[in-house]
Amino acid sequence: MKLELRGITKRFGSLVANDHIDLTVEPGEIHALLGENGAGKSTLMNVLYGLYQADEGDILLDDEVQHFRGPGDAMAAGIGMVHQHFMLIPVFTVAENVMLGHEETKGPGALDLAKAREHVRAVAARFGFQIDPDALVGDLPVGVQQRVEIIKALSRDAKVLVFDEPTAVLTPQETDELMTIMRQLRDEGTAIVFITHKLREVREVADRITVIRLGKVVGEAEPTATNAELASLMVGRAVELTVKKDAPKLGEGGLQVRDVRVLTPDGTIVVDDVSFDVLPGEVLAIAGVQGNGQTELVEAVVGIAARVEGSIRLGDVELVGRSVRAILDEGVGFVPEDRTEDGLVGGFSVAENLILDRSDDPQFVRAGTLRRDALTEFARDRIAEFDIRTQGPDTAAGTLSGGNQQKVVIARELSRELRLLVAAQPTRGVDVGSIEFIHKRIIETRDAGIPVVVVSTELDEVTALADRIAVMYRGSIVGIVPGDTSRETLGLMMAGAADPEVAA
C-alpha cells in the first residue's frame, strides 16, 4: 500500500508543529523520518494514525484521500503504529493486549482468548519470536514488550507500519533483531515509516531518508550520506560527533564502593560483591547488556534500593543506610534511566520540575511559600542555557518531546553544587544535537573535579565518555578496563568473558 501525505499542517496554539509537510512512502520501502527531538516527527505520525486531526492537508492511501476520525479508522485502513512509549496494559496478558480494541467473542460476553493466543503464536512464529501468549506484559523485558506491539499492529493486517523511535529503550542486540524484522516486513511488501534520530540505524536500514527540522521538511538524503551530513541537515549546523576531552586530572577521595550486594525483597541477589572507585576528575562508565544489575547498582548508590550490603562512601560520608533525600543533600546528582517514571512529574510545569530536589531551598521557598518570580527567572535561565524547546516555564513537562524532557532532568541535576554525578542512560531517546550538548556537560562536570558515573548500554557513548569502563555481567563486574578498549573486547566482556590480560 502506498502512503502519501500532502501539505500536512498541525498547529497547537501559536506553535506550528507541522508546516505543510509532504511525504511519500512506497510499498516495500523503509522510509526514515529523521529529525531532532521536537522537530515534529511524532506529531506527523500521530496525525497519520488519527490521534490528531490535521489543520490542513490530506492523507492518501493508494491515491485515495482518507478521513480518519481516530486510530480505529486508521487501523481499519491498514495503518499500524509501534509507539515510542508502548501502548500496552501491564496487568493484561500478551493475548489480551493483542485483541484489545477488536475483541472477538465465542458467545454472549465471553472473549475468545483461545483464538487470540493462536493468533499471537502464528505471528510470533513468522518472525521467530519466543513469546508466551499468557505472560503478563508487565513481567516482560522491554525488548519483548516491543515485539508485542509489533504483533498487535500486524494482527490487524497493517500494510503501512510506523515505528516511532523504536530503539530508544533497546539494547544493541535487540536493536539488531528489530532491524532484521523491519527488513523482513519490507521484503513482504509492507511500507515502513521509521522515525528516529540515530544516524547509524538510519544508514543501516533505510531505503530513503527525509529530514524534518522545526516542523518543516528541509531535505532528503540517501543512506550513503555521511553521519556529519545527516547531522548537519537535522540540526542546521555542523555537529561535533566526537567527544573532545583532555587527560583526566585526578583528585583524591571521590566515590568508594566496597563489597556491595543488592538483594530484592524476596532475597534474590541482583548485585553481587561489587567494588570500584571513582576519583574526582574521572568518568567511570558502567557497561553491559541491560538487566545485568546496572539499574540496581545505581539504585544502591542513590539510596533507592531496599536491601544493600557493603559500603558506599562519598569522601568521608557513608551512603548506605541514608535516605534518598539525605544522599541528594550530600551533593549527589542523579539522572535516572527512565525519565518519565523516575525523572519528572509530567503534570508539573517545566519550572517546577527544575526544582524537584530543591523544594526547601530558600532561593525558591520562604516560610512555606513558593517564590514564583525567583522560580520563573531560574527556569528561564535554565531553558536558555540547556536549549530546552518549550513554550515557556509554565508548560507541563509531560507535553515536551522525549529529548527535551531529558534536558529538563539534566538541567536540574547540573544546576546545583555536586560532589558526585550519577547518570544512567543520559542520552536515551535524545537526538544528535542534544547528545553533543549532554556529553559536553558531562565532561565539563568531570573537568570541574567531580567524580562521574555513567551507565549506558550504548557502546559508542561508553567509549566516548569513559576514562575507565567497568563491565557488568549477571550482577558482577567482570573487569575494569581503559576507556579506549575496543568494542570487540567490550562485547566479549558483556557476554561474561573476562580477559585476565585487560581486566583489572
TrEMBL record:
PANTHER family: CARBOHYDRATE TRANSPORT ATP-BINDING PROTEIN MG119-RELATED, GUANOSINE IMPORT ATP-BINDING PROTEIN NUPO. InterPro entries: AAA+_ATPase (IPR003593), ABC_carbohydrate_import_ATPase (IPR050107), ABC_transporter-like_ATP-bd (IPR003439), ABC_transporter-like_CS (IPR017871), P-loop_NTPase (IPR027417). It is a peripheral membrane protein. One of its GO terms (cellular component) is plasma membrane. It holds the Pfam family ABC_tran. SMART domains: AAA. Its EC number is 3.6.3.17. Residues 3-239, 255-499 form the ABC transporter domain. GO terms for molecular function: ATP binding; ATP hydrolysis activity. Keywords: ATP-binding, Cell membrane, Hydrolase, Membrane, Nucleotide-binding, Repeat, Translocase, Transport. CDD domains: ABC_Carb_Monos_I, ABC_Carb_Monos_II. It is found in: Cell membrane. This is Ribose import ATP-binding protein RbsA. It comes from Microbacterium terrae. It comes from the Bacteria. It is an enzyme of class 3 (hydrolase). The keyword Cell membrane applies.
